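To start, an entry.
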Amino acid sequence: MRGFVRIVERRSFSRAAADLGLSPAMATLLVQQLEAHLGVTLLHRTTRRVSPTLDGAAYYERCVGWLAELDDIEGAFSQRRRQPRGRLRVDLPGALGRALVIPALPDFCRRYPELELVVSADDRPVDVIGEGIDCVLRSGPLLDEGVAAQALGELVQVTCASPDYLAHQGRPDSLADLAQHQLVHYRSQRSGRRLPFEFRHEGELHCLDQPGRLTLSGADVYVGAALAGLGLIQAPRYHVAADLAAGRLCEVLPDQPPPDLPLAAVYPLASQTSPRVRAWVEWLAEVFAAVEPDWLRR
């Protein structure tokens, strides 16, 4: 049953087999035996992809629930499961991971010495289920299906620019003044869309999508554009805090700030009761509970 669930989630016999420590031939045999036992075809198989049939999709949903309940029962009675062990694959946004998660990671490793942690950290969109990731730290709205999420807070954002840029262009005092300014736009790698500038003013949200001559992807190069004097940006405060403190960037329109950015730990529904995932999510909650309120609202 666990093998079938993993194959559906990974859409591949070979990838699921690697996750489970089996050979692809053994994973195929297990599914064939399960189909023979149930008397139905559970999977469509092609040379490029595996997908569930209608019966397979219904059986998968039931299996996820059964396995979660079974993990709960075993976890309550097995001393071994109280100390998480095995491999845990997690993904972090590059800048956020470097600033807030990685510095605290020694504490996690001391607490859970039997866990092997595999961390990827970049800004590309990650398919939690398709890539076999156990947990993803994600900011912004959740667009995924078949996942659960633990809210960790909301990242405070600021609008800022370099002193040289403001000396040349002037400091905006209102949203109307922005028509005379260069806005450096950020392109979401998840949606492929250019994100508008957003401002909260007198209880309302104002979106500004005026043309700009520069659009970037990647948090570090985006902040780098502001440091180079190319225009105004909107970024999480934690990412530009050192530059603001050192005077390399200056906050503008502080009374009309961007909306906060939701932050959550996202993981497959089938992993909700996994001791490994539970340990990681609970530890992340502790880490972000200690982040200063100027950076993260809870």
